Fold each of these.
Amino acid sequence: MTGGAGRAWGALRAGWRAPLPPRARLGLRAATVVACVGFATAPYWLGGSYYPDIWVDMALWATVGLGLNVVIGFAGLLDLGYMAFYAIGGYVFANAALYHGLTLWETLPLGAGLAVIASAVIGFPTLRVRGDYLAIMTLGFGGIVYVAAKNLTLVTGGDNGLYGWRAPTLLGIQFVQPLDFYPLALGLVVVTALVTTGLRGSRIGRAWVCIKDDELAAAASGIAVIRYKLYAYMLGSVWAGLAGAIFAAKQSLISPQSFTFNASFFAVAIVVLGGMGSPAGAIVGAIFYVVIAEWLSAYTGTLSGVIFAALLLVVVLFRPAGLIPYRPRVPRRRLRRAERAGLPGATDDYRLGV
Amino acid sequence: MSLAELPQQIVNGLVVGSLYGLIALGYTMVYGIVRLINFAQGALYEVGAYLGVVIFSVLADAGLRNPVLGLVVAIVVASALTGALALVVERVAYRPLRHAPPLAPLVTSLATFFLLMSIVQVVTGAQPLNYPQVLAVTPWTLGPITLAPTAALIAVVAIVLMVAMHLFVQRTRTGKAMRAIAVNRDAAALMGINTTRVVALTFALGGAMAAAGGVLFGVNYGTVTYNMGEFGGLVAFTAAVLGGIGNVPGALVGGLTVGVLSSFATMVLPNQWQEAVVFGILIVVLAFRPQGILGERVAERA
Amino acid sequence: MESEPRLAIRGVSVRFGGVEALADVSFEVGAGEILGVIGPNGAGKTTLFNTISGLVRRYEGEIHLDGRPLRGLPPQRIVAHGLARTFQNIRLFKSLTVLDNVLAGQHRHIVETVLDSALHTPRYHREEALATRRALQVLHFVGLGATDPGALATSLPYGAQRRLEIARALAAYPRVLMLDEPAAGLNTGESWELATMIRRIRATGLAVMLVEHDMRVVMSICDRIVVLNFGRVIAQGTPAQVRADPAVVAAYLGDAAQP
C-alpha cells in the first residue's frame, strides 16, 4: 500500500502522463478516496466550531464552480454574470421564506426553476453573438441583476437586504448554525459533480465540447450550435440557483454585496484555476478560493484579492490546463463489450448490421 | 423630470461622454488590431486617475500653483506612466498567449484588471482620494444651461486628444502600420512591419489615453474611488461598441451617445438605475447591432 | 438519368460583393457514383462545397438532396437530410478522443433526452453501447481499427487524422458524402490507400463528391468530373472526355500542370 501510494505520488508529480502500473493506480485511487472523505468530514473531526462558515462556503463555491464548468469548461462560453443566477436562487428563497412561509425544501426547486428560466430569457438573444461579445453581454446582465438587487427594494430589501425568516427544519431538526447546512451543501456538491460529469460523457456533453473546439465542424456534424449553447447555459445555471438558495438560508441574510461583479469573476477564476472542463478542478479551485478569500484574508486583509488574481494569472500563463487538467474519460468497459459483441470482419461496409 | 432640464442634461452628457470616448479609444484600438477585449483598460483608467492625485500633490509640494500647467503636467506624466504599465500588461498577459485559444487572453486580461484594481485598493486602503480644484471660477450661465469652466476644459482636452489620436492613426507611418495589422497581421509582417512592436505600442497608447481620461475625470468630479475602473471601464466599452469597435472616430461618437443617453436616463429614472441603463444599452446594441453606429459588420473569423 | 439523382445542383450562382464566385453551376451526383470537382485555385470549388453544406446561405438556383430542396436550411438540418462533409484543412474536435469524434458524427442518430444524459438511464447505456459499436465499425472500415479509440484525435499522425475525419462524416450515415481535398498532404502510398477507401465507400451505394488537386487520384477513381473555372462549369464528363476537352486543357491543365 505504502509502496503503491509512493509510486502513485511520483506519477502524480510527473503530471499524470505515464500510464500507471495497476498497483499504483489502485494506490492512487485509494489515496484519493481517503483524502476526499477526510476532507469532506473535516469540519466534524476538526471540532466544527473552527471557522464554521468556511466549510459550507467551500461546498457552495464548489457547486458554483461545477455548474459554471458546464458553461465555460464544456461549452467554452465565457460567462461573466453567472452569479446573477446565484442571486436569483437566493432572493427566491428569501421571498418564499419571508412572505409565503415556504421552507427551504420547497424553495430549492423554485429557485432552480427560476434560475433556469432567467438563463433561457437572457441566453436566447445573447448566445448568437461572438464569444468575446458574449462575455461582455453576460457581464452586463450580471450588472443589471446587481443594480436590481440594490434598488428593487420591494422584492430584495435594497441595500439592507432581506432577513428574519424562521430557520428551516427537516425531520424535526432545526438548521440554525452554518454547519447545520453542511451535509446539505455537501450533498449538492456530490449531485452536481455526478450529473455534470454524466452530461459530459453523453451526447449533449460531446456536442458542447464540439462547439467549444470548432463551431463550424460541429454544425457540419449535425449539431444545432445555438440550441446546444442554450442548453449549456440553462443546465449550468440550475446549480447556481440551488446553491444561492442554500447560501441565503445559511447566511440568514441576503444582500446585494454577495452578487457583485467580483463574485462572478471569482466564479470564473475558480473554473479556470482548477482546470476548464475538469470537475475535480472546479472543486479544488473552490477550495483555493475560499482558503485565500476567507481564511487567509484574516491575516492578509484586502491583499487576498491581489493574491488570488496573481495566482490566476500565473496558472493561465504557465499551466493553461489548470491545476487538475481535464482528462478525457474513455468508456473502457463499453469498448471491451463492443469488441466482444464482435464486429463483421469484412471491411466492405462501414454500417453495422444492427 | 421636466423638459426644461433637457439642454442642461445634454451638455452634462456631452462632457462625461467625451471622457468615456477617450477611455473607449484603448478598447477600440486594441480590439481593432488584435481582436481582444482588453479588460485591463478599465483598471488602467483607474490607475491613471490615482497617479493624477499623486502628481498634483507632488506639484503642490514643489510650489507649482498654476492650475492649467498642473493639469497638463499631470496628464502627460500619468499618461506616460500608465502607458508604460500597459506595455507591461501586454508583455505579461497578452503576448505569451497570442497563439493560445481565444478564451485565454480574455481571462488574463480580466485577471490583470482585477489584479490592478486590487492593488489600488490595497495601496490606498480603499479610501476615496480628492483632486485639487483646478479652475475655481464661477460657472458660466447661458440661458437654461450652466457650465463649469472645468467641465468645458476637460471636454476640450478630451476631444483634442481624440482628434490627435485619429490623425496619428490616419497620417503617420506607425498609424498606417496599425491599420495594416488590423486588416491582416501576417501580411503586415511580411511587408516588413514589426508587428510585435506596433501591437505593444497600441496597448501603450490605449493605456495613456485611459490615464488622461482618469485624470480629467478626477478634475471634473473632485474625487476618485478604488472601484471607479469597474463601471467606468464598462461604460467606455459600451461606448466603443456603440461607436463600432475598431473604429477610432466611433469611440467619440459612441462616448457622446452613451453620455447623453445615460444623462437622459437620470431624468426619467432614479439615479441608481443609471448603471442598469448603460448595461441595457450594451446588451441591446450587442444583440441587435453588434457593428455599432459607424462600424462595419465584424465577421467571425473562421 | 433514369432514377432520381442523390444530389442535384441546378443553376447555382453565388456572389460575394461584386465578385461572382459561382455562376450558373449545374450538375448531378447519383447513388454509387464518385463525382470529382476540379479547377484551378479560386475556381469556386470550396464555395461550391460551402454552399451545398449550408455555410453559404445566399445563392440563386436550386440544390436538391434526394429530391428535397435544401434552400434556407442551416448546416445541421442539411446533415439531417443526409449530407456529410470533410474539410480541406482537417477540422477534428481537438479536445475529444478518437472515439468521441466518431460519436460526435453520430449526433443525429443517438436517441437520448437530457434526462437520459444526466442520469445515465438504461436507455442512455443502450444508446451509447450501440453508438460505440457503430463507431468501432466505422473506424475499422477507414483502417483505424488498430488505433486506440481513447487517444486524443490530435495525437494521431496526419494521415490517420484525414481518415478519422472521413470516419466522422461516415458516422452520420449520410446519403451524400463530400470530401474537400482528402489527399492533400498525403504521400503517394497514402493517396492510393485513400483512393481504394473511397472506392469501397462508393461500393456501399453512397454518392461521393470530391474536390481534389491530385490528378492521378481524381482520374483514377472518379466516374465523372466537373471542371470549374472562374465559377463556371467549363466541362463535365468522364475522365477521358474531360482530359480530351480543349477548353479544359487551355484553362486548367495548360497553365497549371502541377499536381
Amino acid sequence: MLLEVRDLHVEFRTRDGVARAVNGVSCQVAAGETLAVLGESGSGKSVTAQAVLGILDMPPGRITAGEVFFRGRDLLKLKEDERRRVRGAELAMIFQDALSALNPVLSVGDQLGEMFVVHRGMSKRDARARAVELMERVRIPGAAQRVRDYPHQFSGGMRQRIMIAMALALEPALVIADEPTTALDVTVQAQVMDLLAELQRAYTMGLVLITHDLGVVADVADRIAVMYAGRIVESAPVHALYKAPAHPYTRGLLDSIPRLDRKGRELYAIKGLPPNLMRIPSGCAFHPRCPMARDVCRTDEPPLHAVDEDRGSACHFWRECLDG
Amino acid sequence: MGRYVVRRLLQMIPVFVGATLLIFLMVNVMGDPVAGLCGERQCDPATAARLKRDLGLDKPVWQQYLTYMGKVFTGDFGTAFNGQPVTELMATAFPVTVRLTIVAILFEVVVGIALGVLTGLRRGRPVDTGVLLATLVVISVPTFVTGLLLQLLLGVAWGWIRPSVSPAAAFGELIVPGLVLASVSLAYVTRLTRTSLAENRRSDYVRTAIAKGLPPHRVITRHLLRNSLIPVVTFIGADIGALMGGAIVTERIFNIHGVGYQLYQGIVRQNTQTVVGFVTVLVLVFLIANLLVDLLYAVLDPRIRYA
C-alpha cells in the first residue's frame, strides 16, 4: 500500500476552545489509484491532507494520535529534515488557488526550477531547461518564452497548470490535490481535470482528490471517502457508492445534485448546518441533520461497519439506507 | 517606464517651485534679510537702505525670486555674510551629512531588519516582547534626549567615544551620532519588518514553499523575506531624504559641521542666503529620493507596472 492513514486525530487549540478537526480518519491509497475525499467545508478534508504532508500550522494545530504510513515508513515519526526530503519529491500537493499559492515576486521558471535545484542539486541553468519541459508537458503555449513570466501574467487555468507541473516535477508517487479546480471557470475545470487524470496515468501515481464537487469525482475517482465532522462516514468504490449509498449523508449529497430528469422540481438540500467542531454532537455527529435518526444515534457513535469487502459505512442503519 | 519617469520629473517642477518659493518668502518677507548683516546692533536706516539697494532687495519679491532661481541654475547660491560663497559651505557640509546618513541607513538596514526578522519569526516569545518594548521606548523618547544621554554616558561618563565630533567627521566618529539619528526610524523598520513578516508567514505561497520540501532557510530568505521586505525597502528609501534634512538635532548635539549645523547657524544668525540655498538642495534630494523609491518598488514587485 502506497499510503495508509491509521486513526488520525488532529485538533486546533484556539482561544475559544479546542476544535476537533480530524477524529480518527483511516484510509488507504494504492499506487496508481485515485481516492476522492468528499465533504463540506470544515469536514476535515484539507486538515487531513495537511497533516499527511506535514504542512499543518503547529501551533495551533496538533496531531494527537495516529499513524501515516507512506511507502512503509511512518511519516509522523520521521525527523523534520527527513520528512522535508519526502515532501515535494515523493509526496506532492496541488493547492486550490494558484494565484495565492504561487509566489508573486518570483518567475514561474524560478519556482518550477527550484524543485530540481533543491531536491536534485541541479544547476540553475539545467533547472530552467527542465522548467520549460514541464511547462510543455502541461501544455502551456510558448513555454520557452513564458518561463520568465510571473504568476499574475497567466490566466487562471494556465496558473493551475503551473501548479500541477510543480507538483509533478519530480514524479512523486502520490499527489494530493486540494480542490484543484474549484477556483476555475467551469469550462477550464474539465480541461485541468483531464490533464491531471492523463498525467496520473502516465506516471502511475496515486492521487488523492479533495473536493466537494460530486460531478468531478464520478469521472476520475476509483474510490470515494465521504467525510463528516472529521470522520470518514462512508468509503466505497465509486460506482457502488453512486448506485446505492450506504450512509444517509452520502444520500443527501447525491440527492442535492441538480439532475435533468428532475427539472422543475425543488432541489433537495440537507437540512441544518455542518456542526461546530468545538461542540461535535454526541453519538453519530450527523444525527441532528439525519432524516433516519433514532434514539441510538444520539447516544452511540457508530463504528465503520463493513458493508462489503471494500466498502464501509459509519451508520447504525446502513442496511436500511442501502435498500433506499 | 521611460514615460513614467519623464512624467514624474515634470511633476517635480511645480513641487520644487512651490517649496522653494515658500521658503524664499518666509525668509525674505517675514524676516528682515539685512538684519543679520550689522551684527548684534540694529542697522542704522541709511546703511540698511544702501545694503538693500546693493543686494537688490528693493525690487519686488517675485523679481527677487526669479533672479535667485536663475542664479541657482547656474550654480550660484549667493554668498553668506562672512563673504564665503554658499556653495563652498555646501561643499564642506554635505559630505559630512552624507556620511552621517550612510551610517544611519546602515543601522536601519542591518540592525532594524535583523531585529524585525528575529521578532517576526518568534512572535509572542520573550525576545519578541522585549524588542517590541524597546522600540516603543525609542519611538516615544525624543531624539535629543537619546542623543544627550548617549553623549553623556558613552562620551563623558565612560569615555568610550569623544563627546564632540572633529571637523573631519570620519566614519568612525559618526557611529554613535548615526545610531542616534537612525534610532526612531530603526524602531519603525523593526516593527514594519516584524508585522510584514508575520503577515506573509501565513500566506499560501509560503505554505506552498514548505510543501515543495524546501529547507527552512530557503523558505524564509527566498520566499518569505523577499516578499516581506518590499514595504521595508520603500520606507528606508523614503527615509534618506528625511535623515539628511532631519539631522539638525543630532548634528547640534555632537557638534557635527554638516547640513543641519549650517542650517541651524543660518537660522539663528538670520543668514538668508545659507538657509534658502540649503533648503533648496534638500528639497531636490527629497524629490529624487522619492522618485528612486517608486522606481525601486517596480523592480522589487513585478506586479507593479508604470505607464
